[in-house]
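Data's thin. Show one?
=====
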Amino acid sequence: MAINTKKYIEQCLKIKNKKGEIVPLRLNTSQIKYYEAIRKQAQQGKPIRVIVLKARQTGFSTLTEAMIFKSGATAANVSSGIVAHEAVATDNLFRMSKRYYECLDEDIRPALLARNAKELIFSYADGNSSIKCMTAGSGTIGRSDTFQNLHISEYAFWAGNKAELLGGLLQAVPDEPNTMVIIESTANGYDDYKKMWDQAVRGESDFIPIFCPWWEHAEYSMPYTGFGLTTEEDDIKRLYGLTNDQLEWRRSTIRNKCAGNVDLFHQEYPASPDEAFLMSGRPVFNNKLIMSRIAELEEHYKAHPYDTGRVYF
């Protein structure tokens, strides 16, 4: 009998929240948007292929690991690979999977054949399932494996020839409806991740692009204290339909988490894909002016949609 993934995640899995408490995993607004895009692909009988552009702390990795865990903890012969950009991140993602297992109720917890430094192997009567965590860097990782699920984490920050490494990993996943490949990252300038993102946006690949701006995340809001808005705040409030409570959170985050650096906020908590890529990496041009001009054009287009016409030379 098929097990509803969302119901399993929210009723069975637990996470450590930002207060350090172990609590049930309840999907937030951004995670629901992400989950529904995946569910739609699955219902169409397609291999699940998603590329995610994210802001900080919106829970995409948490949900990705939860979906991967559910697939291996409820069925035999499911192999999953998780590849992070650095060893610390690999440890964190593996720790998340271990917590899912350790906090499962005993009556639904599968037998564990092995648990080593970076792999969980579940034992079933008709075969084993596994979750294997790896760190990008070696050109040989994943080449001897076959995965039904593959999570590529913070791809924009992989070192070395990441396109070649990713190409090898993708060959390990069959083009079958019951497979899933998730490529997620925060932006890091104009690199191979940006190229893949643009291809997905243009419909030139089977990957579905998912972006959740910071202002869609319900948690990113604080009681408004009555300050006067700057010109920039007034512009983005009008452009994105923000509330003063959201602008209060934005000010607080810039002041307390970004050392007063607005550019750093734009990088870590982008309001649009353009902002994410323009404000990250090592830009050559004055990106504040570029973003300002893009905002002006978007505002103008809302009021005056472009007419189809001819260009004469």
Notes: Strands lie at 14-16, 22-24, 48-53, 79-84, 111-116, 119-124, 127-135, 149-153, 180-185, 208-211. The radius of gyration is 21 Å. The longest helix spans residues 287-303.
